[in-house]
Amino acid sequence: MRWIVLLLSTASLAACMSVPVPASRQETRLWQRLDGQRSAGNPDLEQQFMVSRNECTASRPDANPDDPVFMRCMNSKGYKFAEPPR
Question: pTM for this one?
Answer without folding.
Answer: 0.60
